[in-house]
Amino acid sequence: MTKVLYICASPRGEDSAAVQGARVFLGALADSVTVTEFNLFSESLPEYTHTLAGAKQKTMTAMELSAAEAAEWAQVTKLVDQFLSADHVLMAVPMWNFGVPYKFKQYIDLLTHPGLTFRMAKDGPRGVGSATGTVIYSRGGNYSPKNGQPDPFDFQSPYVKAWASLVGINPLEEVLIQGTMAGPEAQQQAVDAVTGQLTGAAAGLS
Ligand SMILES: Cc1cc2nc3c(=O)[nH]c(=O)nc-3n(C[C@H](O)[C@H](O)[C@H](O)COP(=O)(O)O)c2cc1C
C-alpha cells in the first residue's frame, strides 16, 4: 500500500491554486493509496529556539541531551519519522517573494539534519528516505525559462529541487500553476492546464 504525505504550504485553503492542483492529484489516486495531510499553516511547527539549536548540535556530535533539549528534539524526530514513512511526498508550494513561504522553509529547517534525513557519502550527501515526489508550484506571474535560460528570479524551483535531492525525494515531478494573479478565471485556466500532468502523476502510484 502506497503512503502519500501531502504537505500544504499555502494558508489560502481551497482558494489556493496549489491546493486546487493537489485536490486534482489526490482525487486521481487509487483507493489503495493512503494520504496523510500536513498543513504547515494550521499545524503548530516548533520554533527554532536556543534549546533546539543546542539539541541539534549535541545530536550531531553524539552528546547527551538535557531533558529540555530531548523534549524539543522529540518534536523534530516526530516530523522526521512522519516524513520518512511516506512513499510519495506531494507538496503544494506557492511562490512568495521569488522563493517559498516561510512556513515551508521552517519545515525544511526542522526536518533536514545529517544522520536523520541525509547522510554524507563518499560522493556527497545522500538522502535517507526513498520517497518519490510531486511538487505543485503556484505563482502569481510566469517564471518559465525564457530563450532556453532559467528565469533569474525563480528561486523557488531551484531551491525545492536542491532540498528534495538532498533528502532523497527522487524523482521529483514539478507542476507549474502560473499567472494566478490575473484573477480567478486565469487561476482556473492555469489549474486546468495541468490537470493531465497531475492525474498522470497520481496514476503512477498504486
Ligand atoms: C507574501 C506573498 C508574496 C508573493 N510573492 C510573489 C512573487 O514573488 N512572485 C509571484 O509571481 N507571485 C507572488 N505572490 C503571488 C502568489 O504566488 C500567488 O497568489 C499564488 O497563487 C499563491 O499560491 P496559492 O494560490 O496556492 O496560495 C505572492 C503572494 C504573497 C501572499
What does this structure look like?
The chain has 206 residues and is of the alpha/beta class. The chain has one domain (3-203): Flavodoxin domain (Rossmann fold), CATH 3.40.50. Helix content is 39%, strand content 19%. The strands form 2 sheets. The chain has a 5-stranded parallel sheet, with helices on both faces. A two-stranded antiparallel ribbon has the order 4-5. The protein is globular. The mean pLDDT is 97. Bound molecules: flavin mononucleotide. The site of flavin mononucleotide has 16 residues, from helix 1.
Short description:
The protein has 206 residues and is of the alpha/beta class. The protein has helices spanning 17-27, 50-60, 67-84, 102-111, 156-166, 184-193, 195-203, and strands spanning 3-8, 34-39, 88-94, 118-121, 124-127, 132-138, 172-177.
Q: Please state the CA-atom Rg, rounded to the nearest Å.
A: 18 Å
Give a quick account of the main beta sheet: strands, pairing sense, barrel closure: 5 strands, parallel
| Number of DSSP-assigned strands | 7
Number of domains: 1
Query: CATH superfamily, called what?
Result: Flavodoxin domain
CATH class term: Alpha Beta
Distance between the termini: 7 Å
Mean pLDDT: 97
Lay out the secondary structure.
Layout: E1 3-8, H1 17-27, E2 34-39, H2 50-60, H3 67-84, E3 88-94, H4 102-111, E4 118-121, E5 124-127, E6 132-138, H5 156-166, E7 172-177, H6 184-193, H7 195-203
Parallel strand pairs: 1-2, 1-3, 3-6, 6-7
Antiparallel strand pairs: 4-5
The protein binds flavin mononucleotide.
